[in-house]
Amino acid sequence: MSRWRSDNLNEFMGYITCLGSAKVLVPATLLAGLYGIKKGEPYSLQILTSSLVAWGLLNFPLKYLFGRIRPDVVPALALEASPSFPSGHTLGIALVLPAVVFVLTGQRHRKVGALFTGVVILLVSMSRLYLSVHWPSDVIASLLAASVYWHFICPFDKPPASYRIDEVRELKKGSSV
Fold first, then answer.
1. Measured between alpha carbons, how far is 134 from 71 in angstroms, rounded to an integer?
2. Least C-beta-crowded within 10 Å: which of 10, 31, 65, 161?
3. Crossing angle for the helix pair 22-38 and 88-105, nearest 10 degrees?
4. b/e for 80-105, b at 16 or more Cβ within 10 A?
5. In this predicted model, what pLDDT tens digit does every residue of 22-69 receive, in sequence order?
């Protein structure tokens, strides 16, 4: 990827990679949570919280367990102090963004939300490689870990959190309080 480097692309990839950082994902999660509460679905906080917790529980322990050195094949365009494996930015965007987009869009724009999410996840993943701060296996492992997480949280027949939210709605309808 280093042969494609240019000042404009370097700057663009720098902005894209920030989308997978805690300084973007944590506030986005908090805002989505407030929106979910305002919408009358405080249970959407479960999916938001669980995705953030999963990110923290997977990212930092694995980084220090493996202690993998960052690539040095070409000069990196970003400074990173932590170990390379897994890609925390890729893992973060792949775990947290689907939850945020689901809470913000719900069922109404499910296909558009999924397309948007997929494109952003792909761009952040590519930015980590472009900036030469991760090995391809770091990014692939992060995407696989997020896929496994979403498979267990959200089987493919329903969107995230709809199980819990639908169950609560049914309980509310059935009670005569």
1. 6
2. 65
3. 20
4. eeebbbbbbbbbbbbbbbbbbbbbbb
5. 999 999 999 999 998 888 877 788 889 999 999 999 999 999 999 888
Three-state SS letters, the chain: CHHHCCHHHHHHHHHHHHCCCHHHHHHHHHHHHHHHHHCCCCCHHHHHHHHHHHHHHHHHHHHHHHCCCCCCCCCCCCCCCCCCCCCHHHHHHHHHHHHHHHHHHCCCCHHHHHHHHHHHHHHHHHHHHHCCCCCHHHHHHHHHHHHHHHHHHCCCCCCCCHHHHHHHHHHHHHCCC
User: pLDDT tens digits for 88-120?
Assistant: 999 999 999 999 998 888 767 778 888 999 999
Q: Which residue has the tokens 């897994």?
A: 86
